[in-house]
Design a protein that fits this description.
This protein is of the alpha+beta class. It is built from five helices and seven strands; from the N terminus they run βααββαββαββα.
Length: about 180
């Protein structure tokens, strides 16, 4: 059935509002003014957005800024932008690889295992969409998710089959899969 995408995405994003407040960060969500209804696999979209937002907040210092821009010309396009540490061009080709992390030094203070983006990209592709990155070291990053949300693209069976690759699922989320 159709989802009110605007409401659904706003609710997902609001989970990070208290962190933004506590860390004096600017956090804005912008929607275009088109019709915001579509057919999506909510579970997949939720996991993708959660991973991208947790990265944006993790790799942006206190006082920084995170923006979410949502448009639906035909596909649903969600851009998550931060002005954090960014990613150098040498690392960009690998950030979607499983377990790849730019900073693996022992002094590394950021948590994680390097699975979030691999999972997010896999979920975007099983949703017949794409996930791309644009980033400049020292300036910030932008992750762009695009997924079709019209009924013709949605075959629940495909999705179930594709997500049968259970080993791609982050153990933290496994119970909800
Ligand atoms: P996990 O997601 O498993 O908790 P993680 O966040 O380190 O761990 P990914 O989400 O897969 O792993 O991201 C891979 C790497 O890409 C990160 O370790 C980081 O080096 C880089 N990265 C991802 N998002 C950003 C971002 N918004 N800004 C800067 N670097 C990022
Ligand atoms: Mg992550």
């Amino acid at each position: 059935e159709e989802t009110d995408l605007r409401r659904f995405i706003a609710t997902l994003c609001s989970a990070f509002q208290s962190q933004a407040d506590q860390r004096q960060m600017e956090y804005h969500i912008m929607f275009d003014d088109g019709n915001g209804a579509g057919v999506v696999d909510r579970d997949k979209i939720e996991k993708i957005i959660y991973n991208l937002l947790s990265n944006a907040f993790k790799f942006t210092p206190d006082g920084g800024r995170v923006d979410v821009e949502v448009r639906k010309p035909s596909d649903l396009v969600i851009r998550i932008r931060d002005n954090g540490i960014g990613i150098s061009s040498a690392h960009i080709p690998f950030v979607f690889d499983r377990f790849y992390q730019v900073d693996t030094s022992s002094t590394r203070f950021r948590e994680g295992t390097g699975i979030g983006l691999a999972l997010a990209k896999e979920l975007a592709e099983t949703h017949k969409g794409s996930l791309q990155v644009i980033s400049t070291e020292g300036k910030g990053s932008e992750f762009i998710l695009a997924v079709p949300v019209d009924r013709e693209h949605y075959h629940a069976d495909d999705f179930t089959q594709a997500s049968g690759k259970k080993d791609m699922v982050d153990p933290r989320y496994r119970e909800s899969v």
